[in-house]
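User: Here's a chain of 384 residues. Predict its fold as tokens.
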Amino acid sequence: MFPTVSHFISYLFGIEVPLPFNTFGVFVALAFVAGYWAFSEELKRKEALGILKPVKRITTIGEPASIGELISNGLFGFLIGYKLIYALANYKLFVADSQTVLLSTKGNLLGGLVLAALFVYWSYKEKEKVKLPTPKKVEITIRPHELMSSMVVWAAVWGFLGAKIFDNLEHWDTFIQDPIGGLLSFSGLTFYGGLICGGAAVLYIAYKNGIKPLHMLDVGGPGMMLAYGVGRIGCHLSGDGDWGIDNLNPKPFNWLPDWLWAYTYPNNVAGEGNPIPGCVGRFCNELPNPVYPTPIYEVIAALLIFWFLWKIRTKVNIPGMMFGIYLMFSGVERFLVELIRVNSKYTVAGISFTQAELISLILFIAGALLVSNALKNKDKLASY
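Assistant: Prediction complete.
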């Protein structure tokens, strides 16, 4: 397992390079990059077809930097300097436990003040370069794909919050024992929570800029599936706890690699299992029994589904239908994986189920309704 990028480099090249990057975080970032690409390509395609239209905005140019801009830039610079200089001055601690360093109140006051001053000065000088004797209002054109930067930022913020909220609801007993730690920890993220809250933020921004919800949902289907597949690679490589139940069964095929059938997740970041003899450091546990490596199964399924959605996207022209197909595939894929995945179960009226199974079922039904509605009202939706 590779809990950090340093572990991965050591495995590949046999050299120790102390870096403060955890593997899961890197793949989350790569997932956003992958999603950004897929979303942008679809927005450009739909814009070229005339389905999505640019919007006009009136903005004022030539104004000096406002007090609010200077203050916000100063606060941003202070935060970066406060943490960055402290992290560099305590680099060994930062490498060993970057999360604690970033989320603690410790920092370098002088570094924060210096960076704050630099950010304020930079903001002031940039505005001075374009300042006019008399500021004027101009009309600008914003194309759909140009919204992606703000969409990604808001999707990341609200997606993280949603993922944490849903995870803490799913593991309520653990959460009430340490609510602050549960909210601030970067581990323990529920995909559907991130999907729902992050998706809502994206839809809001799109709607504000003239993109109708069904069109934005259709744009997002393939991209979300690609991002999910990339993110699950990080889950597997880091061993974040999203594995399956014990698998002591013999391999069905001799050619199948052991790690693809049953795996013990040594050095997992979840800290689960028994201590590894001779191992020194934070990530020194290994599961006592091999389990189904469900993240890998989801990677394979997600990438195959993305490939299929990407192939059919030019042929599915009824608004809402592409997203409906995505929801149905996503619901079936996750529901099947839940059958062999470790997760908290709820019991209602004698029926046991996991949070993900319930949401998967809801998503599949919602997808089926979207597809049915699209087919039923295709003439009406053609002008949507």
